[in-house]
Write a structure and sequence with these properties.
It contains five helices and 41 strands. The chain is mostly beta strands and 572 residues long. The radius of gyration is 25 Å and the shape is globular. Bound molecules: CU-O-CU linkage and copper (II) ion (2 copies). CU-O-CU linkage binds next to strand 7 and strand 33.
């Protein structure tokens, strides 16, 4: 009964809006180094005359676009003004390389009425990131109700390329989300009724875009649905960037598959098209079995998601955004650059791990596509650390999907490069920096990343499926990045500090990446007695004679400009 009502709503809505397009909302941009983000209640009219309760950041729905420069130190004051009971939240900077304490995962809870103010340096390359809540079991509902925003980073490498970059004029943020509603027009989750397509929270949107090269920053911000982006008449576009940065070369294509959490920056050449209209579409009929949004998601034993076929978007080619081509702006970009930046993919690694994505009940045909799913047999637990890594290690992670549905696997802290897919080559459009990868059923993907700069013995980062219903169901794990010493909460200044050789016989060398003035070092034996101490000025190589020390374990402590770092070494 409820189902029929909702399907009826869908067609009603199509009827109401089919001819009455709405101008695409462009979220306001905010720049600088200090940002106030107020997480608040609001209302939004998705259906004519009906106010649906939503959540927004500094507004009724979605959040402002934060635009920052690489190397800037930023402060984000996130205030939780949500009403209702038990409405704590968190705020995660998806794709950003920040300390675990500042990451905004499930452990950095912002209680109602409280303000959380992480501070960090922007270390990522220019790209399109986003922010959204990540509370335990709450991500789907809070994101679906509207909590999400763009986080755009600029840098000098990007600035050196002739690209459209006037926000809202030739450079557009495009977050695509499908939403489900209950019979009272409240946003619903964990149903297959996500029939309403929104772009930047606008229903049936149109965008007036100038007849020149324009840039679309596509973000799949949906809870579950994958889009196979394309344009009317298969018009060609150029992919210039993926999750974590620009590609080496722009890549002409006419389809781009983006799963929840993934981003793609594309250039679209609208020259000579003034007065014409084209559509950004999802060509979902072309998506293969197992991808949420394709015509079928059928497991190896024939299991299906109940009511999946009732959703008219599944397996359909549907319009997402109407683009009306209007007059050129002054100073238009008229060419598409070929060479962009020089990424060096990581090839060698120090350690490998495997993450098996599995249905809880292997032999349940429906469970193979519906879940609940686990990773290596475990569901997420706030109290458990699933993996421990060592800082500065390069790791190769195999994500092995043993289920009947494709899962977008996301890793916090780092950007990775995809090393291989099922042992085979990686298509060009997936050769850039990524933080989400869609892993097909009964397949694996191997990714390589370096875990650098931030160690913390207690606060973990997350890895998880970015289908938010799966994530909330526990398809998530945690990892610590630790230093090899006991007290490892360090400034970045010392993150690349190394000592060698270890074990040592006579001389141990301390090497820092920066020139240290007034570096002070102390060596303690295993009962805590200071055995050597000294001071060195203006050096990044300190050689210490330890030949007279008895064999055993020692701790070396280095202090400079208020920063302190300790490491263990063994004297032979
Ligand atoms: Cu966008 Cu852990 O998430
Ligand atoms: Cu993330
Ligand atoms: Cu999943």
């Amino acid at each position: 009964m409820k189902k029929q009502f909702l399907i009826a709503n869908f067609f009603l809505c199509m009827a109401v809006y089919a001819c009455s397009q709405n101008p695409l909302t462009i979220p306001p941009a905010i720049t600088g180094t200090a940002f106030n983000l107020n997480v608040q209640n609001g209302t939004t009219q998705f259906f004519d005359g009906i106010n649906t309760p939503t959540y927004g950041i500094n507004g009724d729905i979605l959040g402002p676009t934060i635009i920052v420069n690489k190397w800037d130190w930023v402060t984000l004051n996130v205030t939780n003004s949500l009403t209702g009971t038990g409405n704590s939240t968190t705020m995660h900077w998806h794709g950003l390389h920040v300390p675990a304490m500042a990451d905004g995962g499930p452990h950095q809870i912002i209680e109602q009425g409280a303000t959380w103010s992480p501070q960090f340096q922007i270390l990522n390359n220019a790209s399109t990131f986003w922010y959204h809540p990540h509370g335990l079991g709450k991500t789907d509902l809070q994101v679906a109700r509207g909590l999400a925003g763009f986080f755009i980073i600029k840098d000098s490498a990007e600035a050196a390329i002739n690209l459209p970059r006037s926000y809202g004029i030739d450079d557009f943020p495009i977050v695509v989300q499908t939403k489900a509603f209950d019979i009272l027009y409240q946003v619903a989750i964990a149903t297959q009724d996500d029939t309403l397509v929104c772009v930047n929270a606008t229903v049936d949107p149109f965008l007036n875009a100038p007849a020149q090269v324009v840039r679309l920053r596509l973000l799949n911000g949906s809870s579950m649905r994958v889009y196979n982006f394309g344009f009317t008449n298969d018009k060609e576009f150029n992919l210039i960037g993926t999750d974590g940065g620009l590609l080496n070369n722009s890549l002409p294509m006419n389809r781009l598959l983006l799963a929840p959490g993934e981003r793609g920056e594309i250039l679209l050449d609208l020259q000579g098209m003034e007065g014409q209209t084209i559509y950004l579409m999802s060509n979902s009929s072309e998506m293969v079995n197992g991808i949420y949004g394709a015509a079928t998601v059928t497991g190896m034993m024939g299991g299906e998601i109940p009511d999946y076929n009732l959703n008219p978007l599944n397996g359909a080619d549907f319009e997402i955004l109407q683009i009306n081509v209007v007059a050129q702006t002054a100073d238009p970009v008229l060419t598409i650059p070929d060479v962009l930046v020089a990424n060096e993919p990581l090839i060698t690694y120090d350690n490998t791990r495997t993450f098996n994505l599995q249905p809880d009940v292997m032999m349940d045909p429906e469970g193979q596509v519906m879940g609940p799913f686990n990773i290596n047999g475990e569901h997420f637990d706030m109290e458990v650390i699933n993996e421990t890594l060592y800082i500065n290690d390069v790791e190769k992670w195999r994500i092995q999907n043993n289920t009947g549905i494709a899962h977008p696997f996301h890793i916090h802290d780092i950007q990775f490069n995809i090393d291989n897919i099922n042992g085979g080559p990686v298509p060009l459009h997936l050769q850039g920096l990524k933080d989400v990868v869609l892993v097909m059923p009964m397949s694996y993907v191997e990714v390589i990343a370096k875990f650098e700069d931030f160690a913390d013995d207690e606060v973990p980062y997350m890895y998880h499926c970015h289908m938010l219903h799966h994530e909330d169901d526990g398809m998530m794990g945690s990892f610590l990045v630790v230093d090899t010493t006991k007290n490892s909460i360090q400034s970045q200044l010392f993150s690349n500090w190394i000592i060698y050789p270890n074990p040592v016989i006579d001389f141990i060398t301390v090497q820092t990446i920066t020139m240290e003035s007034n570096a002070e070092y102390k060596i303690f034996n295993d009962i805590g007695e200071k055995v050597i101490s000294s001071q060195k000025n203006n050096t990044n190589n300190i050689e210490i004679n330890v030949s007279q020390l008895p064999a055993g374990a020692y701790l070396i402590q280095l202090k400079s400009s208020g920063n302190q770092l300790t490491k263990y070494f063994v004297k032979l």
